[in-house]
Design goal:
The protein contains 15 helices and seven strands. It is an alpha/beta fold. It has a five-stranded mixed sheet, sandwiched between helices. Strands 2-3 form a two-stranded antiparallel ribbon.
Length: 369
């Protein structure tokens, strides 16, 4: 009965979506859900090997995965005894004697994780439902370490507290201009330099100063608790506070500054300044079975004014937005009819397709008499 009731709300949503999209909506559902699971999509989408899911969970649970690694050096190991059948019998008995909360959490982790290992298409967001259940066992493990291997928590907490202090020192060096641009090299050097300069120049509001200093305050509290060598759970609360404060600083101060630089919004605003209204066109050559990359982010900030060049009849003149390397394929395909004139080069690697996009003015060539 509960399973049936749980299907009522999704069924209403699917019915409403079908009323709006019709058969096209059903085809999309079939493509994105059934064919994606079976690995029979009309185009390759996020195809990754099975170990990708393991890597995703390990990375996604940082820094607590570091706690698991540190604790391995403090556990006591014994040589396995008995046969495989004996081990299996003990394991089965252990599962059967689990309390309901632990057994439910374990089943959710195993079933969801295994399910998303089956399709070729794998993304980190698919595994988000198992994170609360992993947290349940992580909390139990931390309590176990607190009573049996307290030094593991001490080492982990000291590492996190040191990182909190290091975070402030690095930020201070950036703000003082002590980090030279020459430190960055490689293909993404320009982007990394832009991120650094953004951190160097953004205004330090009261909230920003608070966010920067909170991790250091938490680190000082942790070291004070550690020196007391108390027998209570204070050390657990202290290193959790350090971790929380680090995420507070990263998510509340540092990352927004960096993501503002990474965003395509500035590019969209410049395009809007040049072309304040009217339809814009995009051009891409990476079209597979009707599926194409599209400048989604720029189009969003432009109010959904951008459409594919090859799907609409273009006017005598207008504007087309595409990667700079796409100009040659465009002229190869449409050069007999249209000419191109560069209007604006973004010099910004798009967060959609990782291209440096350019806005061109196209115009229809006059027919020769």
């Amino acid at each position: 009965m509960v399973a049936v009731l749980a299907c009522v709300l999704p069924a209403v949503w699917y019915w409403a979506a079908y009323q709006q999209g019709g058969d096209h909506f059903l085809d999309l559902v079939l493509e994105e859900n059934v064919y994606r699971f079976l690995g029979k999509m009309t185009y390759a989408s996020h195809e990754n090997p099975a170990w990708y899911n393991v890597m995703t969970v390990v990375a996604g649970y940082a820094p607590y995965t570091l706690l698991g690694l540190v604790s391995l050096f403090f556990l006591r190991y014994r040589k396995p005894q008995g046969r495989v059948r004996t081990w299996w019998s003990r394991f089965v008995a252990y599962i059967r004697n689990m309390d309901d909360a632990r057994l439910y959490s374990l089943l959710c982790i195993v079933i969801i994780f295994t399910f998303y290992c089956i399709p070729k298409s794998k993304r980190s967001v698919y595994l988000l439902p198992i994170y609360p259940f992993i947290a349940y066992f992580l909390a139990e493990y931390i309590i176990y370490l607190r009573h049996r291997h307290l030094n593991a928590l001490r080492v982990f907490g000291s590492i996190m507290a040191s990182l909190a202090v290091l975070l402030l020192l690095v930020f201070g060096a950036v703000r003082m201009g002590w980090v030279p641009d020459s430190l960055f090299a490689g293909r993404h050097a320009a982007e990394n330099i832009a991120y650094m300069h953004a951190l160097e120049d953004f205004p330090l509001t009261v909230f920003a100063v608070l966010g920067v200093l909170v991790p250091v305050a938490a680190a000082c509290w942790y070291f004070r608790v550690q020196r007391r060598n108390a027998a209570d759970n204070g050390i657990i609360y202290a290193f959790i506070a350090v971790i929380f404060s680090i995420f507070f600083a990263l998510d509340g101060v540092y990352q927004p500054v960096i993501l503002n630089v990474k965003s395509d919004r500035a590019v969209a605003e410049e395009v809007r300044r040049i072309v304040p209204e009217g339809r814009l066109y995009s051009f891409r050559t990476d079209v597979v079975e009707g599926n194409r990359m599209h400048p989604f982010t720029v189009n969003f900030y432009l109010g959904d004014r951008m459409v594919p060049f090859d799907c609409f009849t273009p006017p005598a003149e207008g504007y087309v937005f595409m990667g700079g390397e796409m100009a040659a394929p465009f002229l190869e395909r449409y050069g007999a009819e249209f000419s191109l004139e560069e209007v604006y080069a973004s010099n910004h690697r798009s967060c959609d397709d990782k291209r440096y996009n350019v806005l061109y003015r196209f115009s229809r060539k006059q027919a020769e008499p």
